[in-house]
Amino acid sequence: MALTIFRYPFEVDCHPRRHHRMRRTQSETEDEYTFNLVMPGVNRDAVKVEVVRRKLKISLTKVEVVRRKLKISLTKDGASEAQWISLPKYADRSGITAKAKNGVLAITIKKKTRDPTKKIDLRDSIELIDSAYKLDYSVPGAGVDDVQVSITGARLTINAQSGSMDFFDDFRRTLSTPSDADLANVSAALKDGLLLIQIPKLEPVTVPVEKGQATESDELYVAYFRTPGIPAEKIEVTRVGRKVEVEAKLSDSMKENDFYSSVETEFSESIYLPESVDLESTRAVAENGVLAITAPVLETERPREVAVQSES
């Protein structure tokens, strides 16, 4: 069969670096993003659109006979060509559609609702705790109507105006909060010209270390640590928000010719889990000197294929 096919003149392009990128345009409205990719001669069945993490993958598989010439477009490993598009910040992964018409692939991405803004009420005083982040600003002459504190997503915004007294310069601060900040319990107080903001820290959660190996898949996030010589029962794993800390300390003593010697092994590392995983289901498994931290990928963040519709 192969010899019969190759009686025709043919072209085989196995070098992805020779491929020209698809010409594309993009636009944006209040409700959605639109990407138009120019693909003349490519029908709907030859296009595959996938959502992989925060990117769109557009793959083409095209094998055709043009004027008695067999044209095969392949990458080096024989897979189809692929173009990647990074999703915009506010793209809704569940609201992606694709339509092919007259050699143009139109991909429409709905915008997701932006993080709501939560206003922090100003009190006369707050009870200070040790396990918290504290901020203070000098705002002499300012009243409760002149100072606003709010939280949008993981950002803290402070807006202060001096009013008619003009005892300080107006300012606006937008701060990124730490990953272990308990944003649900932020408090603020304004008294005697001093603004005090308190952000409690999340309590550490102990993650039990089990014996076994992690199985990688598109539905599971896995991070590995090399822990040679350290048994699983000596490893401590804690999680605070998205931060996972791994610590281990092993002491071993031995006697040789009436002399004692000791060897201590210490291990300490940390990682930040991505926002796309279920933090409450974080697990730790260890075997053969390798520790794996796993967390299921949220259903809405898993890779999926977008059906390409044909628009007449």
Q: In words, what does this structure look like?
A:
Residues about 1-20 and about 65-80 have low confidence and may be disordered. The protein contains one helix and 28 strands. The strands form seven sheets. A five-stranded mixed β-sheet has the order 2-3-10-9-28, with no helix packed on it. The longest helix has 4 residues, at about 1-5. About 0% of the residues lie in helices and about 55% in strands. It has about 300 residues and is mainly β. The protein has one helix at about 1-5; strands at about 10-15, 25-30, 30-40, 45-50, 55-60, 60-65, 70-75, 80-85, 90-100, 105-110, 115-120, 120-125, 130-140, 145-150, 155-160, 170-175, 185-190, 195-200, 205, 210, 220-225, 235-240, 245-255, 260-270, 285, 290-295, 305, 310.
Entry summary:
The protein has 312 residues and is mainly β. The protein has one helix spanning 2-5, and strands at residues 10-13, 24-28, 32-38, 47-52, 55-60, 62-66, 69-73, 81-86, 91-101, 104-111, 117-120, 122-123, 132-138, 147-152, 155-160, 171-176, 187-191, 194-200, 205-207, 209-211, 220-226, 235-240, 243-256, 259-272, 283-287, 290-296, 304-306, 308-310. It is 1% helix and 55% strand.
What is the secondary structure topology, with strand pairs?
Layout: H1 2-5, E1 10-13, E2 24-28, E3 32-38, E4 47-52, E5 55-60, E6 62-66, E7 69-73, E8 81-86, E9 91-101, E10 104-111, E11 117-120, E12 122-123, E13 132-138, E14 147-152, E15 155-160, E16 171-176, E17 187-191, E18 194-200, E19 205-207, E20 209-211, E21 220-226, E22 235-240, E23 243-256, E24 259-272, E25 283-287, E26 290-296, E27 304-306, E28 308-310
